[in-house]
Amino acid sequence: MRFFSYIKKYRIFFGVSIALIFVAVSYGFSVNFGKAQGLPLPPFAGVIVEAIPCVCSAGVGLFIVGPTTAGAFLYEPGLSVLFPFGQIYRPGPFVVGGYIPGAVCMIGIPPACTDAFMGAGAYPGNGTIMMIGTSLL
């Protein structure tokens, strides 16, 4: 009974409070949060066959053979987002990710640097990795 006496005494306060709660709840149901979208990057996936340290240009050249894209990709620390488990420095792990076209991996002793992707038997780099995820083993 005591609760109802408070309602009678403060009916304007309770009325406004209930109206505000109703508006807040109905607004939450009407908000369109949209759909999650990834970056529009060309995908690649496969097994790392070889990882070459790019001494003259900061990065790691990765030669990947896989079901989606086979090719040479450049991992650049600071630009490329590396997801766990971070196994890009050795052959063997399965990788998946996205890249942007264009890559240059320079190897050698400065100033005599050469493009690793254009070396003997190699092919031009497919691109620079923007995001990459790896398997644990």
What helical percentage do the residues reach? 10-25%
Instruction: Please give the domain count.
Output: 2
Largest sheet data: 5 strands, mixed, barrel
Count of β-strands: 8
Helix/strand/pairing category? alpha+beta
Please summarize what this structure is.
This protein has 137 residues and is of the alpha+beta class. It is 20% helix and 36% strand.
Q: What features would you highlight for this structure?
A:
137 residues; rod-shaped; single chain; 8 strands; 5-stranded mixed barrel; 20% helix; alpha+beta; 2 helices
Describe the overall structure.
By secondary structure, the chain is of the alpha+beta class. It folds into 2 domains: 1-34; 43-134. 20% of the residues lie in helices and 36% in strands. It has helices spanning 2-9, 11-30, and strands at 43-54, 59-65, 71-75, 81-82, 94-101, 106-109, 112-115, 127-134. The strands form 2 sheets. The protein has a 5-stranded mixed β-barrel with strand order 1-2-3-8-5. Strands 6-7 form a two-stranded antiparallel ribbon. The protein is rod-shaped and about 90 Å long. The model has no long low-confidence stretch (mean pLDDT 77).
Which SSEs are present, and which pair or pack?
Layout: H1 2-9, H2 11-30, E1 43-54, E2 59-65, E3 71-75, E4 81-82, E5 94-101, E6 106-109, E7 112-115, E8 127-134
Parallel strand pairs: 3-8, 4-8
Antiparallel strand pairs: 1-2, 1-5, 2-3, 5-8, 6-7
